[in-house]
Request: fold
Amino acid sequence: MLLSCSQIHKFYQDNHVLRSVSLTVENQDRIGLVGDNGCGKSTLLRILTGQELPDGFEREEPAIARAPRLRIGYLAQNAGLDGSRTVLEEMNDAFAHLNAARETMRALEARMEQGLTDEETDEYARLSAFFETNDGYTTDVRIRTVLYGMGFGEETLARQISGFSGGEKTRLALCKLLLESPDLLILDEPTNHLDFQTVGWLEDYLKGWRGALLIVSHDRFFLDRLCTSICELERGELTRYKGNYTAFTKLRAESRERQQKEYEAQQREIAKLEDYVARNKVRASTAKSAKSREKQLEKIERIDKPYAAQKTAKLSFTYSVTPPIDLLEVRNIDLTVGHGAQQKTLMENLSFTVRRGDKIGIIGENGAGKSTLLKVLRNILPHKGLVKWAAGTRLGCFEQESESLNPYATVFDELHDRYPALSDFEVRSLLGQVRLTGENVFKETGVISGGERAKLCFAILMMEHGNVLLLDEPTNHLDLTTKEILEQALAEFDGTILFVSHDRYLLDRIADQLLILADGGLSTFKGRFSAYQEQIRRRTEAEQAAAAEEKQRKAAESQKSAYRSKEQRAQEVKRRAEQKRMEQEIDALQAEQDTLQASLSDEAIASDYEKMQQVCNRLEEIRQRQDDLLEQLILLEEQA
Reply:
């Protein structure tokens, strides 16, 4: 057990946010925490990490237990870093314990020539073992692996953190957490500000995570790929389901149906018993039986009435004017950001067309120019080239950061000021339709949550009655329930939609074609996002297979070359040995020849014909052998 909590309660004023919540996290757990916005997910995370204390409630005493030396890494939605540091300095801080060990080892190494004490020698051995066990020699590689995977190149290592955007700082904070490798990694909306490639890398990285994961996310693909259990917070109570998000939705529906049937069956039984008691209690003949039934009623352990389904937002996008079939022509436009000397061109000479009824998803890496493209299509940004909308086109727009809202106006006034013809009742009804009710409608738009601002923008979008919807990240900040409602409304809308999104579920359900901004240009894909992903997967696999095959081919050639070289070296060694042997034989023959030549002047041999003949025959053999050896030596030298 890494962490356990039981009987956790939390109150905010009169709101009972958490009700007797209990949760146990074991090593290797992969837990997804889901629930509507404002249900208490972030509050529970702060309690688990010790940033906030739980409240007591009646006789229930809250209890939180943590494993000894448990290291918890917590990525909050607004994570902070030291802005004065460079990226590399901040990432190296994740290995402070290893860096300290390395400095001590270097200090001891510098004194080794002078001699170390036994204690210092033992300390050096302990630090060396610790350093190697914790992969201290690979920290630079690990830093770059994580940074590159999260979309930061080599050029960013020396940049000061204060110069990065909020989303980039969140990604850097996540990089640092991954490098720290805590026993329990708690992530609050980790996929915000990440593009598809980075989310895919993060999913693959976390699938191999050695510790436990507790994840709050509205990304259903992310939860499906990583989680083995889902915890749902609903009306302050936590229920845990086994399986990923898809399994959770099925199990939750079955559980609610079963609870409702059990409750209804018990209510029928109770009503039957109560009716029997009421009719028979006063009769003498049946009073005893009625009393028995009354005791039976008292012993029944009552099943709580299941929660009625919470009222959800109702979204519907309509229009009255039908535009022509050929709706939009875009020709040779440039996408630029910044002004003056700071101006930067993101894309050049983009061209495409849109027909009535198209549902187009716009995708690409962060900074590719997706939001800029939508602003160019709305003629908000200056641009080169042609953007021509057909007559009768009416745009309905949803902005990613709710930029058009007045932060000092109340929710009610923001809507009423835009549509003064609406009565107060109609404004309240429209806000109620998107689940903005009660005192929330009198709060300033600058202080309400991101999800509430998004709902206000949807109310405005419904009033615009656009036959073309331009949407920039419409599901950011939305809880899962509202996401599903928005998806349904967009699926039922028979007008034209162009939308930027990182929500893979939304893209797959709504878009029937894609505009891809990548590699400095624009490409199109006709079909669903899942088909596009499959195409990318096959292409990547083919490229990897080709690269592996090429690598294998080169390795085989290298191996073959190595074998050939080895054989050649062996032949050379053999040739030189043979050459040396023959030279030695020639020298021996020459010495024998000299001895025999000298013996010819000996009278004993000169006077003996047979001995003389033997000496002469041997000299002839020697000369013949020497000639043969010389020819062989010449051949060996030619082969060298």
